[in-house]
Design brief:
The chain is 75% helix and 0% strand. The chain is mainly α and 124 residues long. The two termini are 23 Å apart.
Length: 124
Amino acid sequence: MDKIRVGCWSVLALVVAQTLSTLLSGDLAELRVIGLLFNVAAAFSCYLVLRRPDRNRWPLVAWSAGFFGWHVTGLLALAGVVTTGLDAVFTIGGDARLSLLYQVVLTTVAGFAVHLLLPRPSKS
């Protein structure tokens, strides 16, 4: 399996985890709808890249980078480094340890997806 496909499957795993946590959270309904729409758009981008891996994959790189930034923000908010007012969004089931673990794992997956999906210079 090549790097592009592994990156796409990483993003799909990330989208599934985010969708489940969004559906199971008790946040505001507006935030849940926005999160679900973002996940659907990212999943559609994955579908397009998996269908034609030789085509433009920059939208999927952008989604992965955005998810990376979102989960880094979650880590910083849960650690008390920044105040976002979104602690309820980043907390899963009221458990701080589970929430930190979730944010660490998804930050790592998103970072690897960006790394795998970025175009490499051709070797001549």
